[in-house]
Amino acid sequence: MTGRDHERRHTDVAVTGHADSAWALELLDHLRPTGRDIARVVDWLGATVEATVSLRDENGTPLAGSPAPLDEGLATDIVSGRLASASWEGDGRHLRLIRVELPTPAAAGVLAVVRTSPFDRRAADIMTHTAAALELLLRAQRTAATGHRLARATSDLRLAILQLLMVEDTSAARRVAAGLWPGLLDTETACVYVVESTPEERDRLAAACIEATREQSLVVRCPAVDAHVIVVTPRDTAVADLRDVCRRHPDTFLGGSARQSLAHTAAAYGQAVSALAVAHFRPDKTAVYAERTHPERLMDPAALCAWTTRLLRPLDTLAHHTRAELLATTRLGLEFTAVSAAKVLGVSRNTVRARMERVENLLGADFSDLAVRAAVHLALNTEAGLTEDRIRAAGAPAPLGELLTGPALRTWAQDLLARLDSDGRDLRGTLRAWILAGGNAERAAQLLGVHAQTVRDHVRGAEPVLERRLLAAGSDLYEVVLAHLATGALDPPGLHPDVRQA
């Protein structure tokens, strides 16, 4: 047996001056970015020197190769550093052990090579250089793993900040963001954008958004929709940067909100998703919420404020954080499914349902009624933009039916629904019945005396005509419901907020 104490081994794996250096080129191929695999290198060594090769850590745990019986005393000397390498032969076997530094501090493994013929100079050179290559690959793996963990932790932190904003806890969101992104949330208002591609492209798209906004925006991989990237930004120039990202990435869509108070990030997110639906019908594949006429903009501001304040008055008895939590959850729950809202907020779907049921009881509302959902959604979005001055200036509240009788709103509603008449099918009648049935195709089919698939086809056919998504609950659907209320096609829901108390 022979050994070398603490000899420094060169890590340069290039070999020159040898007649047979083809193995060196093959080893270098294993160091290329596309070929860095510890197991493949160990297997290559075994095939090249015609031996059984294994790599194990300081505890004897196999890392790669085919484990072979070793002299544990020699292995311990190698791991401890007393020997840098060792050779042994007997029983028709020739064994070579080489110390391999592991990326873990003060740790080393053992590369064991066993074959039936003696080791010549060529085999010894190949083993020495392979051990050096393995050290490089192990260090690279450790660095890459550390980088992945850091990236994951940063991504989780971005999501945590977004979830705090969604429940109006802006102070906590600022504290969390201050450590990594100083000044990012030092703002009172911001816009929210949702960029849509495919789940396979989302990571690259998120990286492109971070680069385009120069890390001056909060970029989050949406926890609810695998194809979405959410961007919260105070910068007015961000929309141009994100539109440029969309131009450079095919089949990418962009929806943006109007500028909102940072505390109303949830409302801005709903606006961005609504605009994203419109973007699917636009040639440039982008849309911003303010670019479209929305029914609340056509109502008397003072009357709308007074009605909203009265409808949501039962929630004023709650503690501020509880009220904010319920409003944010309900706002998202009306925009999306309970499962999706739960993922965005980082809570369980049962929690989302429980919070929404509490709001239902407080408001005396029934969220299974699409007209009720549309009315409450209108109130929540209006509440997000209310200021103390507007609340003080509001007059006596009027019923929702009176709020929807303004000439501008009626004209908008009639023009919107008139688009359905251009289709040879009775899209208007089907859509009305479908809304009355709470968005249930089977019940609507019974009302109309047709097949449920016909109802689904008609509702789906109305989407491009109205430039609004209907089968997915959200702002688009509620605008169409309000249009039916404004034209008198549907009766306003009977909401009596003062009847029930928590």
Q: Care to count the β-strands?
A: 11
Determine the mean pLDDT. 84
Strand fraction equals: 5-15%
SS-based class: alpha+beta
**Number of continuous helical runs:** 20
Distance between the termini: 84 Å
Low-confidence stretches: 1-19, 497-502
Helical amount among residues, as a percent range? 40-55%
Shape category: elongated
* Main β-sheet description: 6 strands, mixed
Radius of gyration: 33 Å
Describe the structure.
- This protein has 502 residues and is of the alpha+beta class.
- 51% of the residues lie in helices and 12% in strands.
- The chain has 20 helices and eleven strands.
- It has helices at 22-29, 38-49, 72-80, 121-166, 170-178, 202-212, 238-248, 265-279, 301-311, 320-335, 338-345, 349-363, 370-384, 388-393, 400-403, 407-418, 427-436, 441-448, 452-466, 475-487; strands at residues 52-56, 62-65, 85-90, 93-101, 108-115, 189-196, 218-221, 228-233, 253-256, 260-261, 286-288.
- Strands 6, 7, 8, 9, 10 and 11 form a six-stranded mixed β-sheet that branches. Strands 2-1-5-4-3 form a five-stranded antiparallel β-sheet.
- A hairpin with a 6-residue loop joins β7 (218-221) and β8.
- α4 runs antiparallel to α5 (170-178) and α13 (370-384) crosses α20.
- The longest helix has 46 residues, at 121-166.
- The chain is elongated.
- The N and C termini lie far apart (84 Å).
- The model is unreliable at 1-19 and 497-502 (pLDDT under 50).
